[in-house]
Sequence to fold (450 residues):
Amino acid sequence: MGYSEVSKDLEKVLKFIHSDKLTDKEKETITNDTVEYFDKYVSPGWLKYRKSVSTNSATVEWTDHDSICEGLYGEEFIDCLGGFGIYTCGHRNPQIMDTVKAQLDHQALHSQELLDPLRGYLAKAVADITPGDLKHCFFTNGGAEAVEMALKLARIATGGRWYISTVGAFHGKSMGAISMGGKNTYRVPYTPMVQQVQHVEYGNAEDTRKAIRNLIAVGEKVAAVIVEPIQGEAGIIVPSDGYLKELREICDEYNVALIFDEIQTGMGRTGTMWRCEYEGVTPDIMTFGKAFGGGIMPITGIICRPQMWTQELIDNPWLLGSPTFGGNPVCCAAALATIKFMVDNDIPGECSRKGVIIKEGLEKLKAKYPTVIDDVRGTGLMLAVEFCRSDVGYSVAKGLFARGVMTAGTLVNAKCIRFEPAAVITEEQIAAVIERMDEALADTKAEFGL
Ligand SMILES: Cc1ncc(COP(=O)(O)O)c(C=O)c1O
Fold:
């Protein structure tokens, strides 16, 4: 395509973005273009995984607010998927958006040479809201990138080379992060990957102790134990009380860094600002992300205890990483406004209170449909419903979608559907979700003869 045609094509798209009100013709164009371009230019495989395509005609998202995602034609969905934990403060939270706009009005990205002040303010704020002596921050752009930094920092700080991770774990899909991953389907195409990893049973601290002890016995040195305080992608697996504390004791005993991946559990989602606070445990390194940018900007990072920031790093601060966009001003502005919104509005408390209401509703549905639902679990607004089979779960997720409720059940894995709505979801919306789920369950039960 010639550049003049590219320009004309893009003029059309930019007009859509700038438009206050799209015409029906424009909406039709956007819908058709989206389906065609996803298939041709994004990935020929994606469309069949989206409920928004497999149910009726394609639903293209265009606007959102609070707990609601809206399609081009004004179709409304109560968002219980919550971007897998991004939207704790809601969609386009007005206070956070105001701050981002104000920052954009004077500077978007940093010079990479002068001192960018928001990085410092944000690092201090993160240290202020994290437990114990967690202090030094490093900001990144995505969750997997934060995990990479945590893994590298553990090696520098301890001199160890091995990692202990857990079966079922999810830490992202970059090469280092996926090496820690505990799900075979995500790993198999990429083996061999980082070699020095042992996977142990999640929730079983004794297994971790044995793995470390055995490695030491054969002359190896362990850098870190990495765990999610609650496993998210695995289907919201909450370990028994005391697990995190025991891991802390084991890591102290063997001089191994303890990494908590709080990318999904952090920032209020489970009812405390960080899940590790529930057990009163401070890790050596903690990752954060998802909700950290307020559902508006992508920003993630790590924070560590002072002893992790060794003299080698003080002497060579570029050693850990230097991502071009990591900690840029507009993303820092979003994270600063997010932290303020969270502490001013007791967002962890809201997650806890509303989580109890949703969980009670889901448990009642489990009692009503015992042949369909196997389990309801989780805490705060990190909840899951496990179905008797994956195709049954997908049918319920589709039934919910058709009734204007978005959840995380996908064609690949719907045995377990996650509920991670915004903390700003209203009690009326929660009641509507439970009522619509009741209807969807009745349909599924009849369809499968359960
Ligand atoms: C616990 C945890 N760690 C890491 C990641 C990876 O984050 P990202 O998708 O931003 O790379 C996720 C994403 O779901 C996660 O839940």
